[in-house]
Design brief:
Helix content: 25-40%
Bound molecules: pyridoxal-5'-phosphate
Radius of gyration: 22 Å
CATH superfamily of the largest domain: Type I PLP-dependent aspartate aminotransferase-like (Major domain)
Strand content: 15-25%
CATH topology of the largest domain: Aspartate Aminotransferase, domain 2
Number of strands: 16
Number of domains: 2
CATH class of the largest domain: Alpha Beta
Number of helices: 13
CATH architecture of the largest domain: 3-Layer(aba) Sandwich
């Protein structure tokens, strides 16, 4: 737990709030209906406001803060780089950028030696799709419903959640399909095996009916993140790999949220014994201390651009101030055994505790997850599985989830909630004591949602 004891500073609170409300135009919001929390500081798994309240960060901000707030090694790496060479344009070679690219290719599967750096996750996906289109000469891209891939034109069109709706049509060459979701099976399956088999049959039908000769790529979050922590059933991603091989389609693994340790492995797809063609990353690569994303490119695909120019670029591709904390991230992971501790805490502490909650709270329909990435799916009725709040609920419809979040915040925990789910995604460096303390808060706050359950 952070040892800093925040003190209330009402004047600073008012000043920060005032500038924010007057001048900052916020993401995904009706500007007059929001009340952003002014944050004064953070350390490790905790941050605090100007009113003297501390919060245990159980959402790692936007599931990017894998090494926690103000990690001294990451901060020092940025400071050292800033003192030496704060920026350099991308067509020149740079030691820090080159080292990070090498380190990323070392943890990638065999046959992935090249990294194209972007500013974030959306443009990583945007460029992965561009690469796939150029290499295959085919334009169409298949993406899942219940997915998020970012906020640029193609990335938001790939997105299979309501954030896409107001942005349509942006890229006419995207088609959505249903991915596996055993708890609410779109295929009426009653086992994970059946879910995988029927999900693959549905995907193959989609490929055939859309025309394999028109499809350049399929993009899949290795574990669907914001849209539910959906763990693919055994064999599903391997089946996707086979379909991509059979029909000449590039398999893009979106690892923006699960890459860099969230599941206790470097990459999410490692858990499913599959190797994609392109890997996109962002968030955890440097915990978001400076914006950074990228595409790891298989040698087979990279070879296409050996003598043909890649028609894309960004002023800040591989920015040294972003790459420096990326290099430091590798050192911290190795020295502190981050992957091992994530696997250990996930299985020894989180899984059993969430399973106990599922047994004890009538509003919990299912818990699922891996490493330090879990979902608690809340329902009104365990038998019918009616969600506690409707899909995409807002305002009064979302009140039970808002009440749950308020109870957590009152008890000093900042939760991640989405539709009818609570996600557990703390920084990977969280102490075991803090992890247990946070789970205690969630356990108690579930009494609020239990009160909504039909008796
Ligand atoms: C799976 C996934 N892909 C892509 C993105 C987009 O990343 P960014 O917001 O860095 O553009 C996100 C962001 O949450 C994500 O979770």
């Amino acid at each position: 737990m952070s040892t800093i004891d925040p003190i209330a500073d009402p004047a600073a609170d008012a000043a920060v709030r005032g500038d924010d409300r007057s001048h900052v135009f916020h993401s995904w919001s009706a500007q007059a209906l929001i009340d952003p929390l002014p944050v004064a500081g953070g350390e490790g798994a905790t941050f605090w406001d100007y009113a003297g309240n501390r919060y245990l960060d159980f959402s790692s901000q936007l599931v990017n803060l894998n090494l926690g707030h103000q990690h001294p090694d990451l901060v020092a790496a940025i400071q050292e780089q800033a003192g030496r060479l704060a920026t350099i344009q991308p067509s020149m070679a740079n030691d820090t950028r080159g080292e990070l690219a090498r380190r990323i290719s070392e943890i990638a599967p065999d046959g992935f030696s090249k990294v194209f750096f972007t500013n974030a996750g959306a443009d990583a996906n945007e460029n992965a799709v561009r690469i796939a289109r150029l290499v295959t000469g085919k334009r169409k891209v298949l993406a899942m419903y219940r997915s998020y891939h970012g906020n640029t034109s193609t990335a938001i069109t790939l997105t299979g959640d309501p954030r896409r709706w107001a942005n349509e049509p942006a890229d006419a060459s995207v088609v959505h399909f249903f991915g596996p979701y055993a708890y609410r099976s779109p295929f009426h399956a009653d086992s994970p095996e059946q879910e995988a088999e029927r999900g693959l049959a549905h995907l193959e039908q989609t490929i055939i009916l859309e025309g394999a000769s028109t499809i350049g790529a399929i993009i899949i979050e290795s574990v669907v993140g914001t849209n539910g922590v959906l763990i693919p059933p055994p064999g599903y991603l391997q089946g996707v790999r086979e379909l991509c091989d059979r029909y000449g389609i590039v398999y893009i693994a979106d690892e923006v949220m699960v890459g860099f340790g969230r599941l206790g492995t470097w990459w999410g797809f490692e858990n499913f014994d599959v190797v994609p063609d392109l890997i996109t990353f962002a968030k955890g690569v440097n915990s978001g201390y400076v914006p950074l994303g990228g595409v790891v490119i298989s040698d087979r695909i990279a070879a296409h651009f050996d003598t043909v120019s890649f028609p894309g670029g960004l002023t800040y591709s591989g920015h040294p101030l972003a790459c420096a904390p990326g290099v430091a991230t590798f050192e911290v992971f190795r020295r502190d055994g981050i992957l091992e501790r994530v696997r250990d805490l996930g299985e020894r502490v989180v899984r059993p505790r969430l399973e106990q909650m599922a047994a004890r709270h009538p509003s919990v329909g299912e818990v699922r997850g891996l490493g330090l990435f879990w979902a608690i799916e809340l329902v009104r009725d365990r038998r019918s599985r009616e969600p506690l709040v409707p899909f995409n609920a807002s305002g009064a419809d979302a009140a039970p989830m808002a009440a749950f979040a308020a109870a957590c915040k009152k008890a000093g925990l900042w939760p991640f909630t989405h539709f009818n789910r609570v996600h557990v995604a703390p920084p990977l460096i969280i102490s075991e004591d803090d992890l247990v303390r946070g789970l205690d808060v969630i356990d108690r706050a579930l009494e609020v949602t239990d009160a909504e359950v039909a008796s």
